[in-house]
Amino acid sequence: MAVTIRDVARQAQVSVSTVSRALSAPGLVKEATRQRVLDVVAGLGYQPNRAARSLITGRTGNLGIVVPDLGNPFFPAVLRGVQTRAGEAGTSVFFCDSREDPRTEAELVRTMAAQVDGVVLCASLMSDEQIVDLADLTPLVLINRIVPGVSSVLMDSASGMDQVVAHLESLGHKHYVYLGGPEAAWSNHRRMQGLRGRAQLLGSFEANFGGGGTAAEQALKTGATAFIAYNDLMALGVLSRLAALDVKVPQQISVTGFDDILYAAMCSPALTTVHMPTEEAGQVAVDLLAGLLDGGPAEQRELPTNLVIRASTTAAAKHE
Amino acid sequence: MAVTIRDVARQAQVSVSTVSRALSAPGLVKEATRQRVLDVVAGLGYQPNRAARSLITGRTGNLGIVVPDLGNPFFPAVLRGVQTRAGEAGTSVFFCDSREDPRTEAELVRTMAAQVDGVVLCASLMSDEQIVDLADLTPLVLINRIVPGVSSVLMDSASGMDQVVAHLESLGHKHYVYLGGPEAAWSNHRRMQGLRGRAQLLGSFEANFGGGGTAAEQALKTGATAFIAYNDLMALGVLSRLAALDVKVPQQISVTGFDDILYAAMCSPALTTVHMPTEEAGQVAVDLLAGLLDGGPAEQRELPTNLVIRASTTAAAKHE
DNA sequence: GTGAAAGCGCTAACAG
DNA sequence: CTGTTAGCGCTTTCAC
Predict the structure, then answer these.
(1) pLDDT at position B309 over 90
(2) Which sequence ranges form a coiled-coil region, renumbered to this chain (chains A, B) (predicted)?
(3) Cβ contacts of A209 on chain B, cutoff 8 Å
(4) Under an 8 A CB cutoff, do A62 and B87 touch?
């Protein structure tokens, strides 16, 4: 069995409570005593048993994050942010992939709730009501989703989309289409708002490579000179399909994405897209969670996004 | 406060021990009693307190996974496999990104060790000795790394590389170079073995997009007709740089990657690469961990890899 | 088959 | 400032 607090107490010639205090309430112990305890702790390699501690404090020192799809590079980036900030506080992080199923999401949050101090929920597909119920169960912070009364951090999609539109118009594009994401995705609606009705809307497609391909074919029929994809994964599908159809990007069609995932800079032509501060969002989410745990109120935070202009957009083709 | 075992006991008119048994040792309780308890459990929505349970059993019901870089899509895929299998067993998973630092790796494993039943360590950069020490501390399963006496699951790089070489030679390539990964990466050495000395070795580069670009320039000077990249991320960098230099792939140079990350199929030309059963590896790792926890011996498991031929390779150019 | 009781390792009053 | 004591919620002997 591992070394316990009693071992430390014995060797440091103090009571267990002193050891406990030396470790978690330094101010309450005489400096000399504290030092002695710390030395013994180091010498013995003592690590407090978290189960015992949490049994009594009611806190686990853990937190959870639920994402819809680990296969979308966007989410691992958020994970990284969460872990970075959490790690600084000595907090460990559980993760779960809901595979884009709202039912699974709810179940995962419930399961996690039992063993974490709070959970971060990314791009949730659940209804507002479900989310409120969950927030009632455990401290909850949303990423890219707003539900009244629930903490959230938002990467400003609307503004990002606004920048896309401005960019396209400055290039002389008059007719551009929006290749929509899933109907159920909150971000999809948010992004449409940023469009301000200036783009033709083209249905709703799966938010992945395949969906982009399908969307591209339909978009081609509209005669638009620029395609705005819901996200980068779709945009990559668009690029691929257009290449296959021998449509030149950006000479014939300009294409934009959203998210600025790793691949956006790696493909050719490199994708003009909206950069999302994903890691930062993860970090801020942890901060908001901390606030909640300290008894603070729910907070909303909005992080700026910015357009990254690369090679997939150019001036609109002259009238042909 | 949440509902406890005593609440259940009271309402079911039995003792707490009976409730406990009904839940975790069904055989020791009369069926009728058990049913009554289960009904109450369901009615009250009772969830056993994991901290209390683990305090006494010594098991946490959690496991951890440490990866070198969440930004490489290869690793989220492994995470997914781990979580899938672990979830089936009601086990939750902690994750950590070591940012490719062996020191951080060791620290993370040590920290995790205190609150998990075992850890999965991916593509570790630590020395054999360090790993053995850690394996001594907590049940440990390695992915893509072999250390004597420690459990591991291997995706067969050597064979994969062998297939790459065979493919290239069947296309008539005589002179091809290997753009090496990090010196410290075990997989890098393993992959070189698969080369069997038939490729020219070209230093060691960062295993990412940037590294690929650098490597491509050097490789061009060798006059080789095919470039074998350490991994897909590098290969994508190669593709990008060659495109910038107006070198046609595959007409002038054939390029291969390794891993078959999502994007390998999305880029153009689509990448010929070695497919790795990442999710499966994650699942098998969990199985091996379970074996270890049941007191079983360390085991090695090897998963097959296979070449996926796409558009980035073609017959060697005729003598120019 | 079931109950009573003894802790798991730790923190948090409460004294001193 | 430090020690003593009483549990946190659960599993697990040990009786019956």
Answers:
(1) yes
(2) none
(3) 262, 265-266
(4) no
Same domain, A239 and A136: no
- For residue A106, give how far its alpha carbon lies from the nearest alpha carbon of chain B (Å): 15
User: H or E segment at A122?
Assistant: strand A119-122
Q: Beta strand pairing status for A62-67 and A119-122? A: parallel
Residues of A with CB under 8 A from a CB of B: 47, 49-52, 54-55, 60, 62, 64, 70-71, 73, 75-77, 79-80, 83, 87, 92-97, 111-112, 114-115, 209, 236-237, 239-240, 243, 262-263, 265-268
The overall average pLDDT reported for chain A is 94
Q: CATH number for the domain including B82?
A: 3.40.50.2300
Check pLDDT > 70 for residue B38: yes
Whether residue A247 is found in the same domain as residue A257 = yes
pLDDT in tens, B50-68: 999 999 999 999 999 999 9
Kindly list the residues from chain B whose CB atom is less than 8 angstroms away from the CB atom of residue A89: none
- Residues B121 and B263 grouped into a single domain: no
SS3 B205: coil
DSSP A139-205: -EEEES---TTSEEEEE-HHHHHHHHHHHHHHTT---EEEE---TT-HHHHHHHHHHTT-SEEE---
Beta-carbon separation of B243 and A71 below 8 A: no
Q: Identify the residue whose Cα has the smallest distance to the C1' of D11.
A: B56
Nearest chain B CA: its distance from A267 CA (Å): 6
- Return the number of other C-beta atoms located less than 10 Å from residue B295's C-beta: 6
pLDDT at B318: 65
Question: Which among A55, A64, A263 is the nearest to B51, CB-wise?
Answer: A55
Q: Which amino acid, B146? A: I
The end-to-end CA distance of chain B, in Å, is: 80
State which residues form the domain around A289.
Answer: 62-155+277-304
Our measurement of CA B29 to C1' C3, in angstroms, reads 13
Please tell me the distance from the alpha carbon of residue A155 to that of residue A149, in angstroms, as a whole number: 18
Smallest CA–CA distance, residue A40 to chain B, in Å, is 19
Q: What is the pLDDT of residue A1?
A: 65
**Position B315 in a domain:** no
Residues A87 and A180 in one domain: no
B43: CATH: 1.10.260.40
A221 and A258 fall within a common domain: yes
Same domain, A148 and A285: yes
**B42 beta carbon < 7 A from strand D?**
no
- pLDDT score for A27: 86
One-letter identity of residue A83: Q
- Note the pLDDT of residue B198: 87
Per-residue model confidence as pLDDT tens digits over A159-198: 999 999 999 999 999 999 999 999 989 999 999 998 888 8
pTM for this one?
A: 0.93
